[in-house]
Design brief:
The protein is an alpha/beta fold. The protein contains eight helices and six strands.
Length: about 200
């Protein structure tokens, strides 16, 4: 690992917006960072429904999505019941964890310390070690339970970045909207990018 490389955990749940997690992972790999990649069963369903991917062979699906080189050199895939994975322990040092998109069910488990899978355990570890946990909720409308869990997670140390694209940069495509949200996540991670034009920028 080179001196500039950092280690991140990216988790995709069953909320709409799996493309955000995919795009974020690609950007982190592009910057030559290491990614521990987690995806829930509901997340695989979203891969089929929203990204129109054939998930019958999951390894092939990920190879097609990220490329074999990226999977060999930068991305480690973990099963959600593999509690021997490095990210299950606070002794394993990571820079941050990002749950993108974050379903309301996953939010509830994280906010209440219910670690029933490697995803929730990794989030719990991130909070207890006072590392950056970024949650990207994608739900509308929100009820009181959702709002209370968001506040509880934020008070525990999570950084909440809703999947709410801006329009002041005058987006011209779906990619522009996706890149805005992913760019805001990268900003929170202090990872340089050029995914959107910043307010006040002339280029």
């Amino acid at each position: 690992m080179n001196s500039q490389q950092k280690i991140y955990t990216v988790a995709i749940t069953g909320a709409s917006g799996a493309i955000y997690g995919v795009r974020l992972t690609k950007e982190l790999v592009k910057a030559e960072h290491k990614v521990h990649f987690l995806i829930s069963e509901a997340g695989w369903q979203v891969f089929r429904e929203e990204l129109l991917l054939d998930t019958s062979d999951r390894q092939k699906c990920l190879n097609d999505l990220f490329g074999e080189t990226a999977l060999e050199d930068y991305i480690d895939i973990h099963h959600l019941q593999d509690f021997k994975a490095p990210v299950a322990s606070g002794s394993y040092r990571t820079e941050a964890m990002i749950v993108v998109p974050c379903s309301m069910g996953t939010l509830s488990k994280i906010a209440n310390g219910n670690s029933g899978s490697l995803l929730e355990r990794s989030a719990d570890v991130t909070l207890k070690e006072r590392r950056r946990l970024i949650l990207v909720p994608r739900e509308t409308p929100l009820n009181g339970i959702h709002l209370e869990n968001l506040l509880k997670a934020e008070r525990a140390g999570a950084h909440i970045i809703p999947a709410m694209p801006g329009f002041y940069h005058v987006p011209q495509s779906m990619d522009d909207l996706i890149n805005f949200v992913v760019g805001k996540i990268l900003d929170a991670l202090d990872v340089p990018h050029q995914l959107f034009q910043r307010w006040g920028s002339t280029s």
